[in-house]
Amino acid sequence: MITGLRSASLKARLEAAVAHELLLSPLLYDLQFQPLKVYLRPGDRKGPSYTHDLLATFVDGRRMLIFVRNSDSLQKPRTRRDIEAILAATPSSAADSMSIVDAGRYSRQRRENLFRLHEAIQTPDPEIDDIVLWTACNHRSLWLMRDLFPLLDLPQKTVFKSCYRLIARGALTANLDHVVAEWSRIEVAS
């Protein structure tokens, strides 16, 4: 029973990581969790069913159902058969496409960083972000996030949060599979 709980909890965390990554996109309009349940045998409401993980709606109107599974599961023939059955049972009006996401690319640190980036964009400060980005673009020896601190007449905490927002919007880059902190290697995105 505990194994099932851990498995369900991990699946929820992986779905949340995919959601956090989607929520960072300026192209996303809406995101729904478990938006649609489909029955794998048409007309049989008591038979096997599947609830889709996510439904992303983009600003251009496209709707995408998202199927999240770990790498090991995606390698199994049964999972491939299940995906085919799910696709067949899903009405074409439910979405324009379905994407299969390999949750194996979401390390624990990446999941935590995506959560922190999402949290950071909840308190926008475009003026500070413009100042920090301008400084990063014009500092020739930028290597670590902490290299920005002495160059700006701002509290370190303010610069740090701004770096998170700039990474979230893609203006700065950092390795999300490592802790993103003052000792992190950052670059201005090209």
Q: N-to-C terminal Cα separation, in Å?
A: 49 Å
CATH architecture designation of the largest domain? 3-Layer(aba) Sandwich
The radius of gyration is 20 Å
Helical proportion, percent range: 40-55%
CATH class value of the largest domain: Alpha Beta
Report the strand count.
Answer: 8
Domain module count: 2
| CATH fold-level label of the largest domain | Trna Endonuclease, Chain: A, domain 1
Our estimate of the beta-strand percent is 15-25%
Regions with pLDDT < 50 over 5+ consecutive residues? Answer: 1-5
What is the overall pLDDT average? 92
Would you tell me the structural class of the helices and strands? alpha+beta
Largest sheet: 4 strands, mixed
Taking strands numbered 1, 2, ... along the chain, how are they ordered across the largest sheet?
A: 1-4-5-6
The outline comes out as elongated
Topology as H/E string? HEEEEEHHEHHHEE
List keywords for this structure.
Trna Endonuclease, Chain: A, domain 1; 8 strands; alpha+beta; elongated; about 190 residues; single chain; 6 helices; four-stranded mixed β-sheet
Describe this structure in words.
The structure is a single chain. The chain has 190 residues and is α+β, with helices and mostly antiparallel strands. It has 2 domains: 2-105, Trna Endonuclease, Chain: A, domain 1; 109-188. It is 41% helix and 19% strand. It has 6 helices and 8 strands, in the order H-E-E-E-E-E-H-H-E-H-H-H-E-E. It has helices spanning 2-23, 71-74, 77-89, 108-120, 126-138, 156-168; strands at 28-33, 37-39, 49-51, 54-58, 63-69, 97-102, 172-174, 186-188. The strands form 3 sheets. A 4-stranded mixed sheet has the order 1-4-5-6. Strands 2-3 form a two-stranded antiparallel ribbon. A two-stranded antiparallel ribbon has the order 7-8. It starts with a helix and ends with a strand. The model is unreliable at 1-5 (pLDDT under 50).
